[in-house]
Amino acid sequence: MRDVFVIGSGMIRFGRYPERLLEDFAGEAVRAALADSGVDPGRIGMAVFGHSQGGRVAGQRVLRELGLTGISILNVENACAGGGSALHTGWMAVASGLHDVALVVGMEKMQKGLIPPNPGEYEAVLGKTLPAKYALRARKHMARYGLTAAQLALVSVKNHRAGALNPNAHYQKEVTLEEVLASRPVAEPLTLLQCCPTTDGAAAVVIAGGELARGVRQSVVRIAATTLKSGMYRNALKDPLSSDDDVATRTGAAAYEMAGLGPTDVDVAEVHDAFTIGEILAYENLGFCPRGQGGRLVEEGVTSIGGRLPVNPSGGRLSLGHPLGATGVVQVVELTRQLQGRCGARQVPGAKVALAYVVGGSTPGIGSGASTVHILTM
Questions:
Q1: Among 11, 97, 140, 283, who pairs with 203 as Cys (CB 3.0-4.6 Å)?
Q2: Residue 282 half-sphere exposure, CB side, CA atoms within 13 Å?
Q3: Which residues have a Cβ under 8 Å from the Cβ of 80 and sit 6 or more positions away?
Q4: Of 51, 88, 141, 322, which residue is the catalytic one?
Q5: Among 51, 80, 272, 289, which one carries the catalytic annotation?
Q6: Domain holding 339: CATH number?
Q7: Could you give the CA distance from residue 333 to residue 327 in angstroms, rounded to a whole number?
């Protein structure tokens, strides 16, 4: 396998766009990534699109409007991990030498309200929606390790503070601890400001083999590792880890091994924080702290901008927004720009190693459908 680099990145401002078609704003992100790369679009051999609700041949519809037709176009659905899975797929195509340049796009135009359950998910029909699922995980962590409601809420405070510095974030307003705790209850202990908003968005990266990347006009970022794992059955009554925690831990461990790095080497991270508890569990599952200590990490400011390990400097899913298929790609856009020193007021000084983690899907008896981890280096 040859080295693969991110040579261009682009995105739109995340938000709600009821008047715009998916093809319209996804095309905007693609054009931005192509312009950023400076590569001739004719060099692109493959395009991979991550989305969940885009409909049939959505990627072909986007590129048709841009005149990029006749190439290999693949659409990937893996719930919230769709964008991360798309990058993993595009990386394989370039690393193997099948294509020299690939375009990876994450995009979503979200429906209002809760994500509907899959057919046969009877627990969801009875009330175990995604907020309820994460609320149960939070309650378990509270009972087992002493996680507090304030520590949970501080994740939202931190990420909204970061989002206020990001001109592409859906929400660009800081919130206080008191506001988070007092916001409308959703699934105890989670309140409204501890849940990601319903957001439309698109992001794109251009990736290329090392030979071509060396000729790009700006600094390029190496994809040092990319891993994709799926959930396994675990007996919740006997196993200390849930399936969600297990798949994240396995995916992260495989990425560290592939990159030849460890958790202490990471300078900045973007992790899945669709709900506040998700970020705290990510700290532990990815080895940033011992199990049970995630609440202390956020309370002590370790994961804030300016801390030892800033997490979600983009604002995360809580403030930047969480268009399902776009999330895994926009994380890579943010981290690429962090490593290139292009993030302005939210810049993490001297960042050289970055990690992106996303998890998606929920299936009866398994838990997590898929998880991806990418490690980027300068």
A1: 11
A2: 28
A3: 272, 274, 322, 324, 327, 328, 358, 359, 360, 361
A4: 322
A5: 80
A6: 3.40.47.10
A7: 10
Number of domains in the chain: 2
Instruction: Return d(Cα 16, Cα 201) in angstroms, integer.
Output: 8
Q: Summarize pLDDT for 203-247 with one digit per residue, the tens.
A: 999 999 987 877 776 789 999 999 999 987 766 555 556 667 889
Q: Which residue has the higher pLDDT, 205 or 136?
A: 205
Domain that holds residue 154: 122-197+225-377
- Residue 88 falls in the annotated catalytic set: no
Catalytic residue flag (residue 343): no
Are 215 and 232 in a shared domain?
Answer: no
Rounded Cα distance between 271 and 269, Å, is 6
Is the domain of 189 the same as that of 335?
yes
Q: Identity (one letter) of the amino acid at 153?
A: A
Residue 365 has pLDDT above 50, yes or no: no
pLDDT over threshold 70, residue 189: yes
Q: How far out from the chain centre does Cα 311 lie?
A: 12
The pLDDT score that the predictor gives to residue 198 is: 95
Name the residue among 114, 149, 143 with its Cα closest to residue 362.
114
For the record, the structure tokens of 112 come out as 């209002």
